[in-house]
Amino acid sequence: MNGQRFQVASQCCFHSTVPILILSPRPVIPALARSTHSRHIASTTAQEGCAALASAALLCGYACFHTSGLSSRRLHRSQRPARARTRHAIVAATAATTSASIEPRSQTDLLSDLVLWLQNLGAFGLDGLSVAQSPLPHRGRVVFAKRDFEPGEELCKVPAAAILAVPSHGPEDNVGDEAEVSLAKALLNERHLGARSRLAPYIASLPAEGELPLTHPLFWPQDLCLKELFAGSVHGQRVAAEVLKVGEAHVEALLSSRAAVNESEARWASAIVETRAFTFQPDTDQEQLALVPFLDMLNTFSLLRDGEALWQCSFEAEGPASEGASLAVDRPIRQNQEVLHVYNTNSSAMLWMTYGFIEDGDGENPFEVAGLSVNLHEAVASDDVDVQRAKLAALRAADLLVQQPLVFELPSDGELGGTLLPVARLLGCRTAQEVGELAPTIFSVVVDGGAPKNSGLELEVRARRLVAEWLRRALHDSDTAMSKHQNKLVTGIDGKCSKQHQHLHELAERLLRRERPVLELELRACDEFVAEAAKVLQGSSRDAGADSRRAEFEAEQWDDETGWLGAG
Q1: Are 80 and 350 in contact (CB under 8 A)?
Q2: Which of 235, 351, 404, 438 is the 20 to 30 A CA-CA neighbour of 541?
Q3: Nearest-5° angle of CA 119, CA 123, CA 129?
């Protein structure tokens, strides 16, 4: 290996992570241990030279035509996290070996070759689509409709002979057997075959090393500080840390297996798989991960505007790759309109970590997630010692690591089955006796799906006030971080205006803007509940109507199946 790439330390460095506990009913990204290695590319060995020459021969015949690097992972890609991370000065090894006397083919020619190759293999529907430069910045070449399409139509279908697929299920304890690594190895094998590859026109159409987006985590700069970049985004910082670990493990696996001739090529293959792969038959024993030519050029747009989705088609994932890959039309597509499909139910942070971009526009992401961090020791600091001990003991009994900040993911953790309100109710208790009475059942909905328990309106008000306090702090942190990002974009970074750093800070600011409405919505719900409940609780015992008003309020706000406001 090339030695250690990063120094993992407690200071705010690229791979430093703050220990956190994720409190979410959904699967959590597995933190895979991995070794790291340097970004320095050693001089090309004889083996590397042979592979480079083979690649050069292929690239001379099929120069890249799609350079956006952003048109990747497709709907039904399984819910495990993106695999990618870190930056490295990408140097295309093949460029140095290409003879200056050989004219590279134009992008138009390469596109024609790709389409003709697919049609000869039996592809359907490509004559109704075209590829051209997007009128929007940084979107590269995209797919447009040459005619109108209506819901229910098959947009296009790519035959199995053009698909590169691998099984998704391998030994869980072996990074080298993971589907992403296996597919990257298969891709590299085809690349090294050069013109002899059965997928030569497709391999040639892929972006080369130097054409991949530097906003993708695999290519982030060495000096990047995650804590600074993701300040104000608890969810973003958590996702980035986990994704970087897994991505480095995949690069290491490609290098140690000698599937890639150098680190540059390993990162190229990992990025291609991360940003372009489709999943067939997801969540089954027959699940496959695959690269599908042409379909991987469609961009995503998972935003809603006035409740209406802005994407028009979806990937048909139910069948195996051996039956081909097709896109179904879900909403009308008009002639000359860009064809879009939703890659997956990704939050903005996951979009960035997987594909290297965050959607811009005035719509809202229906899959958005925002994180909320709570320091338990700070939360119980004002309690008497016996109350503190009782609360922390109850949280330990629920398998919550109280020495670490708890991280809640909204909106899911604020809903029925989530952990936000149960923790807040426990922390809202005022005596050790109250904690003891509440603790045995407080997490029953989370653990076994039991019915929620009404612990009283007074406790619910205290819990909601705690949550509102945490949310206001999170919004303040978001505002502070956004201001810093904006300042860096205006003044430059340490006096230097690196385009890569500028784009990363632009995305970080966009991430905060995307996540903010999730926090604001939760805060508004808490504030409204507390305000209305306070009016009811202020009623005097001599007020004849106080009891009836309270009963009416509780009847409106409490449900035996979903709890207070549907949050358990």
Answers
A1: no
A2: 438
A3: 85
Run of H or E including 291: strand 288-291
Kindly state the percentage of the chain with pLDDT values over 90. 49
> Is residue 247 a contact partner of residue 84, using CB atoms and an 8 Å limit?
yes
Model pLDDT for residues 268-325, shown as the tens digit of each residue: 999 999 999 999 999 899 999 999 999 998 887 666 666 677 788 889 888 999 999 9
467-506 CB burial, b ≥16 within 10 A, e <16: bbebbeebbebbeebbebbeebbeeeeeeeeeeebebbbb
- pTM to 2 decimal places: 0.78
Rounded distance, CA 385 to CA 389, Å? 6
CB count within 10 Å of CB 418 equals 23
Which has more confidence, 409 or 52?
409
Burial of 511 (0-12, 13-18, 19+ CB in 10 A): buried
Instruction: Give the end-to-end CA distance of the chain in Å, rounded to a whole number.
Output: 51
Which residues make Cβ contacts (< 8 Å) with residue 253, sequence separation at least 6? 175, 176, 178, 181
Tokens of 24: 């979410």
Specify the residue for token string 């600074």: 228
Q: What residues pair up with 410 in beta bridges, in sequence order?
A: 370
CA distance 332 to 153: 10
Place of tokens 């697929």: 165
Place of tokens 């207070």: 564
Q: Quick one: tokens of 97?
A: 């070996």
Which residue's structure tokens are 């460029």? 95
pLDDT digits (tens, 9 = 90+) for 475-526: 999 999 999 998 887 766 555 657 888 899 999 999 999 999 999 999 999 9
Tokens of 562: 């979903």
Specify whether the CB–CB gap between 328 and 287 falls below 8 A.
no
